[in-house]
Amino acid sequence: MYVRKKKSKPYSLLRKVIITVVIVIIAVIIFSITFNIINSTRCSTFVKTFGGKKGDYIKLILQTNDKKYILFSTTLSNGSGQSDILITKINNKGDKIWENKYGWEGDEAIRDAILLPDEKSMIICGSTSSFDDGYCDGIVFKTDQDGKIVWKKIIGDKNIDEKALKIIRLDDGNFLVLGGFFYKKGMGMFWIKIDINGNILWFKKKGNNKYNIKPSSITKINGNKYILVSTIIEKGNNQIYLLKIDSNGNEIEEKILNFNKKLYIQNMIYNSIENTFLINSSLGQNIYLLKLDDNYNIIWSRLFSETQTTWGASMIKSSDNNYVITCGNKEQNVLLFKIDNNGQILWFKNYYRNSNDEGKIVLETFDKGYIIGAWTYSDNNGYDILIIKTDNVGNCPELDLKSK
Are 198 and 192 contacting, i.e. CB atoms less than 8 angstroms apart? Predict the structure, then answer.
């Protein structure tokens, strides 16, 4: 029996074509979104060096919202005086975008800096010898979006050396600056509150013949309070000096901790979840960490004998509530390692470059990787700036890794 086939209607073919096109478009969109997500979460890695005719020493790295980095260094190269403050912006590949130098007739050195909310201006603190007949003063200054100095504040008394060491932004929009002063009879510390226009709102200091107080960092704790972290320098064993203050700079509590060791404190990180403190210090040339409870009793301590540091290591708290540390070792390589809350090493990286390198500062980046600022020795120029960007577990394909 002959069966007559029905002819396909034109609108049926058109519908198939439309459906096919829609499917292809959806597939392309899904692929594009997936690719962008993978690409955006992938960690960039690079290795870069920066330096001039003389020594350049990195002190700080800050990250901007446009996924770039600002490097803060002290430079001996082509400055106004003996040394100047050098600020360099690089992109996420390590390429230089711009740089500015700040200096006068004497020596200037960077200690700390903070980006303002607009990320086009910043407040910088450090030291200068240009305004007190060769003595060192603390200096705090603000720059605008073009890098020009808006105001500067010199902090110092005659015939005494001062340095502005740390700056943090307070909840009221003003700034707390921690500094140290040094004179023939010893050393002490000062802390000041300064507003956005450079006006000093109050000034406090502490130091006498009884203690040689060497300040190092500011730790914010609960209740809008702060702990000024210092080392008491003595002939035998040093002591840890913790001074708790309120937002008006008034002293709340003073604590001196003696662990019968020659420790030098670098910084202290507060864990608000556990209400504990992790102290980063150096013992000899090794890193020595102490975890304390809220009464400053030791929970654990650990000496990392595989490390070596000239003037202390850099330690930060990571976004997963662990800790990441950079320093150097006896082989003169940069080290980067991660520890948990119990001081156990989660991973450990040793970057081999066949040169004299030491990690000085580490920062967790927007892609969950890490950027290291290091000193690297050049036979011709003294020290240069070495920047290492790694992935989230410290890998950097541009460098050789040596086993622990």
Answer: no
